[in-house]
Amino acid sequence: MKGTNLGEFEELVLLTVAALLKEAYSVAICDELASHTGRSVKLGVVHAVLNRLEEKGLVTSELGEATKARGGKRKRYYELTMPGKAALINARAMRDQLWAKIPSLAWKNG
Amino acid sequence: MKQHQPPAWAQRFVEWYCKPGLVEDLTGDLHECFERNVATIGPRRAKLVYIIDAFKFFRSYTVRKSLFAHLFMNRTMIGSYVKTSGRNILRNKLFSFINILGLAISMSVGLLLIAFLLDLRTYDRFHENGGRIQRVTSIFSSNNEQGGKFATASIKTARLIREKVAGIEAVTTIKNDFSGDAKVGGNELPIKGYWAEPSLFRVFTFPMLQGDPATALKAPYSIVLTESAATKLFGDQTALGKAIEVDSMVYQVTGVMKDVPFFSHLRFEALVSLSTAEQMQNSDPGFGAWTNIWPYSVYLLPSKNADMAAIRTQLDALAKEENLADKNTRIQLELLPLFDIVVGESLRQSEGGPGFTGPHLSPTVLWILGALALIVILSACFNYTNLSIARAMRRVKEIGLRKAIGAGKNEVRLQFLAEAVMISMAALLLSFLLFLALRPLLINMAPEMQRMVKLDLSPAMVLAFIVFSVIVGVVAGFLPAVFFSKVSAINAFGNVSPVKTFRHLTLRRALVVIQYTVTLIFITTTAIGYVQYKNILAFDLGFNTTNILNINMLDNKPDAMLQALGEMPEVTGVSRSLITTGVGNAWGGNMKYRDSRDSQLVLTNHVDENYLPLHDYKLVAGGNFVARPASAEAVSEVIVNQQVVKRFHIAGNDPQKAIGEQITLNGRKMTIVGVMQDFHYGKVDNLIGPVAFTPWTPEDRTILSAKIHGADMPAAVAKIEAAWRQTDRIHPFTAEFYDEEIEQAYSEFSTMIKIIGFLSFLAISIASMGLFGMVVFTTETRLREIGIRKVMGAGAGNLIFLLSRGFLSLLSISAFIALPATYLFFNLFVLPNFPYHTPVQFTELFSGLLVVLFIAFVMIGSQTLKAARSNPVAVLKRE
């Protein structure tokens, strides 16, 4: 069921790509995720997810400028596509709807 | 600052597997992380992380498709290897046959060993906390004499550990000697087991079927039966809550547990509460004494994450404090992990005796067996190597062609390894059949073996067999693979260079020499061992053992049996004694002469007045016992051997004058009435020491010795057995001829000879097959030369000499190495352990050599003769 739904981690990565704007490349995404979620995020996992998102057509990627810090290797920058943006908005809308359905009473008894 | 670089090979690894489109991105990421890690966690760990990440990136989406194709290709290549190897194996039927058969025979030994080891490894693994359980062992020394290491520990040790040692979850004590006849209604059956505490069920995992494990062993006179013991005694009825009478004591069945698994070092049918033993032996101060370590086993279950070193120090401190109380004895406590009990250090009392708790095997024996098996297997591998390289000439063209059409060294190497592995796989099938056939033989070889292993197949075992056969294949094929991979395409099509093959000729010769040396060592060892064994059995112990049947009266009074035996015409004499000597049994006491401070341990036996004449003991002075004491109290006479007279300088070492002298034995004054000639009380590997015989009293347990005269021994024994049935219906008749008992006493020895003998038989067959293959090969390749020589007028004898000269010189080199080596090995290491051995004779050394030479000569001779008889015209015409 490719492309129909976002996994939790996929959503996080997608959000990070959106948040980092022009600076979204694997290591930066990794750092950002780690600092926001507080969990240790493995580079390999982020790579795999980015790859999957690209296959789903939610992000596109492009090689950037070479930097010295990377042993002369270029970075691959990621950017949200229109379906990617739609997927994020969808996900948020779905959550908001569910949140709205919780009666405020439910919290008091908890 | 030094610039750190990530490990180049890991980077290359990523570049190798990664999709070209992703390479730059991935390696860039790795590099960036690496540089950052160098700063934060140091270069060394950064490199490690780099390597780990390099492997982590190996995922389905990163790996280039062509790589999968490549791996797949390799798999199809293996298919082609299998095909070509199969063809090769079929083409060279004789060589394949020799190799497969040789490997199969030797591998069956390996399979047996693997099965044996796996069985030993399964011991006690069923306990949930098995990895934590420790046995408390004691090093016992008295009077500053270094005592032995014992597998046992005292009840007090257990109590003190419970009170004082921290970090212990549970402690349990087992008293190892509960046995008796259990009476239920009219049913009476012998039963064996341990005295145990409730904590046994906390330390060990023995599931209870009925009853509460926490309380079942609490109250005195409670008994827990295993399922099969319960069925044995009660049949279909429930046993729980019923009463059992054992030796006129009534016990309440408080639990029925699952049968003890076969692979358990603790084996029992019943557990009786230890509190029973405490009550029974209330009056005995020795029962709970610190120094009474003999019949008890103590086990600990340390808490999870317990500090073992701390427990050990606490044990040391505890022992130190207790040792203060008794100046003469010192006990040191040690811990032995549960899994090291069956295969581990040999501790005293861990086999036989009252402390007996199951099978034990010393790791040295395993190492020796392993080494022997390895030698036999390697010998078969040598055959393979040898024959493969010998055929090199014929295959060089094949390999040259392969190389010419583009095969690399690697491919050729793989091809030859595949061929060897295929051969060893075929051998595995055959050797598995051999394994099935040999298994019952091995298990039934000795009663200890039956109690120790089952050798049943398990998935792990099958897997181990397959892995083993692959390893054997790789070992066998390694040298040929290396050798053939070096063949170059250019050389192959020209004339084969003699220089190269010469070099491998020496290798082949070396292999043959090694093989035959090993074979000869095996064979001579067997011969020497066998001769020594026979000498021990025929050894003059100093008394007569022929046609004497020793009947163990167990707990029965011997009178009825004595009378029955007296009425049989076949029985010419009967005597009573406490133990059977000469088979390793011993009974002893402290003897003193005039100097009350000078005491010596002497070995004793209690015998009646018929014992000495029946066994032909020779008296040097004095006479037989006169009095017939009714109790141990009344014993006043003693017959000693010459060693006693010598040891105490009784009457100036004169046996005649020693008669009438008084000695003290175990605190009782006795008069010497006779002096016997020295004889072998213990086994032949012990020196003769002082021995004293005192009169047998009706209180003693009895061995009845009946001297049987007559042609039909089995009939006589059957008659005696019928008489036994009249007096005792419960216990089986246990009687054995003295000579057979002696034979059994050395059964360890005969088992070892049987094993080495079997291995040497295998070694001979394998070496012979290898030699046969070589001879066939050589004669075939030299057929033309033989033809020409025949045409030139050489006779058959000449030719045989020509062809066999090489092999015979190799064999003589082997003999030169093997015979002195075996001779020295026995004289320096083995025989010094047997004070009464016979020296190694030349016949034993050379008989083995003759056998091997004979077999080799028959093979060489038959093949060379065949070649020498061939028609030169037919051979030479082929050109």
Automatic annotation (TrEMBL), chain A:
Top-level taxon of origin: Bacteria
Xref: Gene3D superfamilies: Winged helix-like DNA-binding domain superfamily/Winged helix DNA-binding domain
Domain Transcription regulator PadR N-terminal positions: 15-88
Pfam families: PadR
Protein name: Helix-turn-helix transcriptional regulator
Protein source organism: Chitinophaga caseinilytica
Lineage of source species: Bacteria, Pseudomonadati, Bacteroidota, Chitinophagia, Chitinophagales
Automatic annotation (TrEMBL), chain B:
Principal subcellular localisation of the protein: membrane
Pfam families reported for this sequence: FtsX (PF02687), MacB_PCD (PF12704)
Domain MacB-like periplasmic core intervals: 96-317, 546-722
UniProt entry tagged with the keyword tRNA processing: no
Key words, A-Z: Cell membrane, Membrane, Transmembrane, Transmembrane helix
Annotated TM spans: 94-118, 365-385, 416-438, 458-484, 510-531, 755-778, 799-825, 845-862
Membrane topology summary: Multi-pass membrane protein
Cellular compartment(s): Cell membrane
Span of domain ABC3 transporter permease C-terminal: 371-487, 758-872
InterPro entries recorded: ABC3_permease_C, MacB_PCD, Macrolide_Exporter_MacB, Permease_put_prefix
Coiled-coil regions listed in the entry: none
Keyword Transmembrane helix in record: yes
Stated name of the protein: ABC transporter permease
Natural source organism: Chitinophaga caseinilytica
